[in-house]
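Intended use. Records like the one below are meant for learning the mapping from a protein sequence to its folded structure. Do not use them to infer anything beyond what is encoded.
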Amino acid sequence: MKSNRVPSADLSAQIAANIRDAIVSGALIVDERLPSEAELSLKFEVSRATVREALKRLAAQSLIRTQRGATGGAFVNRISFEAAQAQQITTSTLLLSMNDVSFETACEARYALERACAPLSSDRRKSNHINVMRDEINVQREVGLSDEAFCASDVAFHRALVDGAGNPVLSYQLAGAVEAMQPLMNMITFTARSRDAIIALHVTIADAIEAQDGAAASAGLTALEAETQALARRVFAQRSGNSAQV
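Structure written out for the chain above:
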């Protein structure tokens, strides 16, 4: 005989989704205290252990925070774009790696988004954004710099360009586009990328952003995409040829 009983894991997921929907809709507002575990247990007709698991799910998503003491409990959390970026990067990385997205497709999306950001960055960037871009170019010129360090510097350069737009929504979205692509970028960076060519284009882009020339910055990003795509095609063709010989 089959049981109609819903597994507790599924119940906790349903409860978490119910509370999450209430937060998203505004029925539960920032800093509002959630009902106690006992109250939620009665409301949803489940055990307190199931409620506790649901609250853990919400806390893992930074939707709620817990406080101890007489005035403690679970409260609706205020999520910042900066705090959510790590989750966005992880999700984007998994999507790219698990869904057979080609390098060409990912690269096209990343630079399309970044070009859309360039005019805003040219208009709004502050001196600290320019300084970061210049500092990262100097790092990239260092003799003996490891591939890993060069890649990290490349990410920091582009994040400064994006953050210069002064738009947290764009920064949040592009954090995933730029950093999630890094594992794919590493596939070619560690083998054949010309650092001199990349650095020269970084200088062109930084100069354009500093001069508040959005069109030139976008053109520099287009050239950088073309360089990256061409290199990727050469690397993948070489790998395909080597595999055929085995």
